[in-house]
Amino acid sequence: MSYQYEVIEENGEIFDRLTDLSNSLRIQVRRKGAELFSISKSDASGKRQGFLHRDGDLIPPVKGWANHATVMGYYTHRLWDGHSNYRGHNIHAENHGFLRSFAFAAPDRKLAEEGKLTYLVPADHIPKEAYPYKVSLRLTYSLSQEAVDVEFLFENEESDIETHLSFGLHPGFAVSSLKNFQLLMPKGDYLVLEAPGNFLNGKAVPLAHQGGDMPFPRKDLEGSFLVDIQKIKSRTFVLTDPVLGHQIELDYEEVPYITIWSERDDFLCVEPCWGLPDSNPQRSFDQKEGIQKIPPKGILKKNFRIKPTFLVN
Q1: How many CB atoms lie within 10 A of CB 74?
Q2: Could you tell me if 307 and 248 are in contact, meaning their C-beta atoms sit under 8 angstroms apart?
């Protein structure tokens, strides 16, 4: 395989562009937040089509959700009253943690030319108010087998203490309308976690799904559906839109939770999450439901895959 790597400056932003020359799959990642803001391919006519909401557009909309695929960490969703207690440390940051506004350095050019964009968070660059321990991150977007692979690799650099965190991605996929898409979910036993006001209340509703389109009312998507998928044997979800002619296969085999959300008629978020929002009443950070643990001097590595294709008439 051969890849083309480019560094682009546009509208006051610096971003990285990586193209698989063998199949036209292309991704673009802005340095601010290491946000994947474009996944595109050329269709049969040679026209390039984007698969994300506002794909490739870095100019914020007048109103509404302004992101494309927000990176979440070192916690996901919201903290109660914007704060949390972690072993006596008071941590606070914006929703989904500090990564979404972190200024990432350029990825390694040699790796980029091999089809990988890798972004680093050195432990000593973490804002102290956002996370108190030495845990570094290596976030990698790879092009492989006509898909985008996303890998989170956290390293606990503390020699004598277990650390805790949560993370994920918040991708909004383009749809022609909330009426037109189908989100095909595999057969199995799910748990739908109740979260009024976006905070867990400790209750969950079992969902035995026979496979096929999601059973959630589209009119309620703005409130989000938090779904525990850990009992699902094959965690591959497929988003199709016959009007756009798009199909997106989501291999979430290592993912414990997904969040399904939309506030508009032209996108759907299917978020892979290794963590959950705060609960009401709040638990200490290390006791949060869904929190991930890393042993002293240990590594936590998780990945998922996004495979965009075109529907064949």
Answers
A1: 28
A2: yes
